[in-house]
Amino acid sequence: MAKVVTLGEIMLRLSTPGVKRFVQSESFDVVYGGGEANVAVSLANYGHEAYFVTKLPKHEIGQSAVNALSRYGVKTDFIARGGDRVGIYYLETGASMRPSKVIYDRANSSIALAKANEFDWAQIFKDAKWFHFSGITPALSADAAELTKMALIKAKEFGVTVSVDLNYRKKLWTPAKAQEIMRPLMQYVDVCIGNEEDAELVLGFKPKGVDVHSGKLDIKAYHQIFEEMKEAFGFKMVATSLRESYSANHNGWKILLYNGKEFFESRRYDINPIVDRVGGGDSFSGGLIHGLLTRNEQEACEFAAAASALKHTIPGDFNLVSEEEVLVLVKGDQSGRVQR
Amino acid sequence: MAKVVTLGEIMLRLSTPGVKRFVQSESFDVVYGGGEANVAVSLANYGHEAYFVTKLPKHEIGQSAVNALSRYGVKTDFIARGGDRVGIYYLETGASMRPSKVIYDRANSSIALAKANEFDWAQIFKDAKWFHFSGITPALSADAAELTKMALIKAKEFGVTVSVDLNYRKKLWTPAKAQEIMRPLMQYVDVCIGNEEDAELVLGFKPKGVDVHSGKLDIKAYHQIFEEMKEAFGFKMVATSLRESYSANHNGWKILLYNGKEFFESRRYDINPIVDRVGGGDSFSGGLIHGLLTRNEQEACEFAAAASALKHTIPGDFNLVSEEEVLVLVKGDQSGRVQR
Amino acid sequence: MAKVVTLGEIMLRLSTPGVKRFVQSESFDVVYGGGEANVAVSLANYGHEAYFVTKLPKHEIGQSAVNALSRYGVKTDFIARGGDRVGIYYLETGASMRPSKVIYDRANSSIALAKANEFDWAQIFKDAKWFHFSGITPALSADAAELTKMALIKAKEFGVTVSVDLNYRKKLWTPAKAQEIMRPLMQYVDVCIGNEEDAELVLGFKPKGVDVHSGKLDIKAYHQIFEEMKEAFGFKMVATSLRESYSANHNGWKILLYNGKEFFESRRYDINPIVDRVGGGDSFSGGLIHGLLTRNEQEACEFAAAASALKHTIPGDFNLVSEEEVLVLVKGDQSGRVQR
Amino acid sequence: MAKVVTLGEIMLRLSTPGVKRFVQSESFDVVYGGGEANVAVSLANYGHEAYFVTKLPKHEIGQSAVNALSRYGVKTDFIARGGDRVGIYYLETGASMRPSKVIYDRANSSIALAKANEFDWAQIFKDAKWFHFSGITPALSADAAELTKMALIKAKEFGVTVSVDLNYRKKLWTPAKAQEIMRPLMQYVDVCIGNEEDAELVLGFKPKGVDVHSGKLDIKAYHQIFEEMKEAFGFKMVATSLRESYSANHNGWKILLYNGKEFFESRRYDINPIVDRVGGGDSFSGGLIHGLLTRNEQEACEFAAAASALKHTIPGDFNLVSEEEVLVLVKGDQSGRVQR
Amino acid sequence: MAKVVTLGEIMLRLSTPGVKRFVQSESFDVVYGGGEANVAVSLANYGHEAYFVTKLPKHEIGQSAVNALSRYGVKTDFIARGGDRVGIYYLETGASMRPSKVIYDRANSSIALAKANEFDWAQIFKDAKWFHFSGITPALSADAAELTKMALIKAKEFGVTVSVDLNYRKKLWTPAKAQEIMRPLMQYVDVCIGNEEDAELVLGFKPKGVDVHSGKLDIKAYHQIFEEMKEAFGFKMVATSLRESYSANHNGWKILLYNGKEFFESRRYDINPIVDRVGGGDSFSGGLIHGLLTRNEQEACEFAAAASALKHTIPGDFNLVSEEEVLVLVKGDQSGRVQR
Amino acid sequence: MAKVVTLGEIMLRLSTPGVKRFVQSESFDVVYGGGEANVAVSLANYGHEAYFVTKLPKHEIGQSAVNALSRYGVKTDFIARGGDRVGIYYLETGASMRPSKVIYDRANSSIALAKANEFDWAQIFKDAKWFHFSGITPALSADAAELTKMALIKAKEFGVTVSVDLNYRKKLWTPAKAQEIMRPLMQYVDVCIGNEEDAELVLGFKPKGVDVHSGKLDIKAYHQIFEEMKEAFGFKMVATSLRESYSANHNGWKILLYNGKEFFESRRYDINPIVDRVGGGDSFSGGLIHGLLTRNEQEACEFAAAASALKHTIPGDFNLVSEEEVLVLVKGDQSGRVQR
């Protein structure tokens, strides 16, 4: 198993109990989560030495975020401590035609105000095999963008494979700002995860032969888009999840991967009911990284799909499944029969 | 926005946690609700000055019912205080083919024993635009029937538009008694809400050209029924919801409205899963009143349908949605995608 | 109504709240359950004088198991007290394609170490009409196998009808061991409940004309299997449930019964969502015994099917439904409409 | 152990979680309790065949009350079923100088409307050794007073020892009415439980030599009062608990008993913190009856004191302690050391 | 009853369940509270028309804070809506020698960034009798200090009585900054609430004849301090609570008031156990304002003491007691006997 | 900070919510704990590299125990995985004169059946400074006794300081058996923790000049006992906690330490209320080890006393306090004032 590093923000998630609305709630369920932290947890569950790099306050809320990671086996040695606040997101879980709602309260968190020189990059990347980040981290602040860039430079110095999840967040920046920051970072990226929307918003990428605004794209269109993305940015691989949203409780889900030569497509999962959608994309990234580190592309694709389908059935941000459990689903047992 | 008045009983609702059966429950979830109170909450949520008129004991259970209303913006200035008890209903939520169960324990509540002269009708209806009541209130007791009649007379004196939800409750009275009390009240009603069953039981109404007992009615039959109801009772409008019950968790839902000239029919919603069915009809009344106060009939119909479909996804009796949220659904987004 | 006796183990069930995973849980929901205890509860609910025979420690966890039975009307007069531990099973409830998981920790429980002479069989079977056991009890230990045999001998002495639920448990014994113990017990059995898999594993039964490993069997094949089982073991009746597993939340369900002459098949139920699958089979046995004690075979079959379909909607092991509720479903109302 | 019968009302108790106020509570904890039911539970815990006689509705709330009794070993064979409602009491638990509050909603309960001829008194009192009732039951209604009188007449016919807990409830009747009903019932009573206040209010009893309104009475005064009560009403024994109320959490507690010749006084308990005061007096009655049935007066006095002191540490109305646990405390271990 | 206005910040309070530590908590209890909001709730409970002035975001967390106020009768008409965040404080409740802990996360809240011209001061103070603020509000930001000053100027224009709770918060500002802002505001203040520490830190006040650092002050010393404070700042009244901290669960509590001529001292309360200390001081301010608006100084002093002693027994920030409940305690009943 | 190793069993603790009795509980709170695991958590909290050595099943309950340790910073690298069960203890928390109760169900746990050669002792003790075990581990089974002996031999080979907590458990072995196993292990022990009772039961130690059965011992007697223990077994240090049990909620607590020359005695703490007594002794061991590793004996004694006093205020087995928090209490602040 490999040393893997992810960098980003872990937030306090305050969610209403069950499917209560915000205005009805007399308590919030507490978990901690965030894109790259979720990826680290997935990788720790699959047996990797997964390090999550961030900055968190010294107080007990910061400590609780650290503990949430170490509880599930993520290495927290490189987490800087200081600053004032843990970023927060409030979550109201929807049902049927009522969508889930997220309210962010993450400005001025410790990681948003952290400096690149607060981290010992040489130690962080020594012997590492993979580095993963997302488009959320550089969007947090100018400092965080600088920090991300430094991490990428250092990762490449140490010969580490790099993946990015483009993940556009409209509450954090504009497309123009996103492209200004993100385009120059793409030179460090080996594996790009994101759909055509993210590519357009974050990278300013417009496929030549496809009208991405013409409603639902077919698989063919994705093939062309992925080829053009590879061409434009030099990615070794491009991957995306394809979600069909029927209701807050019922989605279709599959994975598409391009390795620069061939296209790989996973089985489609019909997920009903969805228990917790949040972290679905991150669990796909985590599954894909594990897959690419341990097996061929088709298997990686299936592993990532099954892993992330399972995430939708688990409360919280983290995908608390083992490699063994994912493989049972890869082998095709969707019957849900009781395991005694 | 308008001053709107509703009159009726608000009860303490004691429901089992999750889908536990009564005999399994070591605690009850507590909310307060009741037909006309639910309508008032809907209207307050849409921005109206909504007054709920009732009588509640001075003790803390009575106070909690008052607070439940003021918490969500309903005006409680005209709630009389006194008497001994808050009516109760016990609720067990069903699942799949197991139906939800309601046990009423509402006899001798403060409002059931209240007298018409305990309320300052002139203040209540001054500047009001709309008055809503249901067939439940006059069924509570002879006093409550008298009180309802007085309210209707006064509402008309002040030129207030009146709507009724016929709502037959077999535990409270017989069809014969219902018709004796309710038929004379129809002269004050502008907008009548109810289906053919309610009309038969509460008003003794039998459509000439339609066999209402021959199973499922088609839309055509409803058109004829509505025309005859208008004819028979002089209503300006007649409306009903059309529910298809597939299981305790899965219903179809749409709205039919007749304005004396034209018929309007909303989009059909497939609601799966249902979180809480109770108050579904009241949220339709609330949505319709708001719709008719602020837009044309077709829009009112769609607003009422979307609002009440959303209610089915919200725990408790009250429909805690904003006008903005309803309009998003009216515009057609049923995908349940996370709103960030 | 009849005196009915069941014999077996009742365990402490520790289940995660909602659909949380084991590693997320900071509390466990506590109920008590086990195959034959569940059958006794069903029968008590239908009005029978149902006795559950077992051994439980004197300490408070043992007492809590006794109380769980007496709470729902099961007679506990013949429960021996002593030994050290109550068997445990941990339950994690699945969702969608994630299966539920059971971890057993039941070795060395009081009943597993009990001796046949600790029970007053004459008192137990005096005036009894029916005795039910399952293939789980003799699998617990050599002592428990001996105890089961003694119970069967005594039941027959008192002219009691005997039913068995074959219920193979691979964590408790091997097919070889199961067959060594169970085959000699079949001479005492009147009604055998189990499918072709159980019959093969527990009884070493292989139908001549049917390939039970060739995927899904049709009803015809079951007819032949049942006829051969009757032939081979002398059962008066053979019955099984037929479960279609689409996901952890969605199953199809029906019942097949053979009385040595005719085949009876119940209506098929589409159960969605499933609230709690555990005890589904036991509630079928309970429903069938009640049915056979009180009505004809077709009615018994429908009663058993409706009763056990309802069980899937009820949290915990016990099927907390009345005869009246089952009959409403037998009559065909699956609409889930609120009962007021 | 003996057959013991108690008669009265068992109510649904709805209490706020922890020490929340009524107006803060979004859920109520649910237990069932009531003076004579609590006594029956105590006696079942000590090993007696304890029957509770009442009437409860057939619906599930009524059934839950029955189950609450059978769960803890009380015999429910003589509970009549019918009527509409289970009486309710709301409980808010106090802290420090804030008192606990009870709001009653018990009018028109099934037992309040029950008739004496709905019960098979011969079966009820056959072989019974003791009958216990309280001043609450005849206060419920004229019917309930009649019912109580009939029970007393029948108890005496069967030679059953009778105890009463005078228990004046000012919300249920006036002193004048209480005395009119209760005084004639005293001829059937062997053991009278109550303090000087209850005796004055319920029996119109005024001790000649003692000013009961002059603040705190000393033990001497109680001796005189008890002697006079015995004289006036012919009781064989008189007993009372003596409570010192320092705060909602801290009470002193002891027991005084007079057997017509001698006075017995228990050890004094300092109870801090009190977990749940409700049922404290009933647990004293239960302990006293058990004591008088099984040992001498001094021991009975100590048993009753220790048992009822322990009740104050147990949530709910019922005193869930075994004889063995009471005896450990009687022997003097108040250290609260962990029992491993 | 009077129109009373308070101005300040209401925060989301996230507290650990029971006495769990932060690092153990998987959920947070949610209430809303803050110094001046708490005062408004007290006054609404006593029957006043209490307005709370603040600014809150339009999103659902902001709305929940508004609802928390209207639920308990506070008028929210003058709450501005906008900005991004609701200030937060995390609370861990201590026990015995372990202190409670508060972690603030309130920077950049809507009210901290609000401008004075966002409020309609004329409407706010029209017909108002009293205005209350605290030293926390001007400490939030320069804008908030400006806003506070404007409110004071306007209050005085409308002839409103003004009270301040000095309340030094070391996390928000330094003594130097506090004095720079607060000293000029004292000219508008009629009633000053605060002890010698607050006076030194917030006002730079040093009594001439008393060494405030010499440990515990006696009542005499307070008399001198209050006289000097009146002299120095022109207050009409000065008041303080005197807390003795024995442990996290056990405090002594009394009130001292000076009306410029005489000193008034309340009864001392021994509070054990403390349920929730937060808001204790605010409930004293609320009780004092009500007392001074409705009765003489000695009575006001006793009312304030009893009201705030009771607050310590109530979960959450708000003092949910009625005038009637306070008066029972003023009359001296601290026995905590159950009120039936 | 130092590498510290502890060895023993970590159990699943199932405790009733609040102070409910076992027979009332519908759920159990879940934490994991055990003597030496608790010590490891204390040491990790104080900043040490604390390793806990045990064996746990591979299933999810075993994994949850591992996670509970890593969550709070304990190193789990040397935990063997395998076997069938996690030992369990049921806990009912007492109140006032009602004691807490523990029911053990720990036989045949993975660690009880583990062999010495399943652990890499060289890696475990490399660079370690301290090894701690208790008298519970060798009591689990013959294998566990062997394992403990091997660990001690290896610890001494690596020059590691060894401490033992004698901790006699009467449910696990007899005094004779304890002495047979434990006496030979004392040669490896540097620091012995235990009182005169444990010394008598576990070591067969009888002080010459002191009657340990004559009730409460004074400090002088302890001095003599400690001197004799040192003499008899060659300990470098002897220490004990001195608990005064007033009730389940109120204890006195202090620490006595003897370093072979001098006696050290900590301040006495009055703990009221106790939140959770379990792990009190372990937190004393953890505090003492930290104290002896970082400061002089008097300071170590005070640190251990304050740390373990604080444990009594924290739910669960683990002492979740930082060095900083302990030092605040050592400095004398027991006021429980809110820390903002």
How would you describe this structure to a colleague?
Chains A, B, C, D, E, F: One of its GO terms (molecular function) is kinase activity. Chains A, B, C, D, E, F: Keywords: Kinase, Transferase. Chains A, B, C, D, E, F: This is Kinase, PfkB family. Six copies of one chain form a homohexamer. By secondary structure, chain A is of the alpha/beta class. Chain A has a single domain, classed as 3-Layer(aba) Sandwich (UDP-N-acetylmuramoyl-L-alanine:D-glutamate ligase). Chain A is globular. The interface between B and C is medium-sized, with 28 and 24 residues.
Number of strands of chain A: 15
- Structural class of the helices, strands and pairings of chain A? alpha/beta
> Assembly state here?
homohexamer
Name the biggest interface: A-E, 28 and 28 residues
Estimate percent helicity of chain A: 25-40%
Predict the CATH topology of chain A: UDP-N-acetylmuramoyl-L-alanine:D-glutamate ligase
**SSE topology string of chain A:** EEEHEEHEEEHEHEHEHHEEEEHHH
Q: CATH superfamily of chain A, called what?
A: Ribokinase
Instruction: Round the mean pLDDT of chain A to the nearest integer and report it.
Output: 96
Write the CATH architecture name of chain A. 3-Layer(aba) Sandwich
Tally of separate helices of chain A: 10
Rounded to an integer in angstroms, the radius of gyration calculated over CA atoms of chain A is: 19 Å
> What is the straight-line distance between the termini of chain A?
30 Å
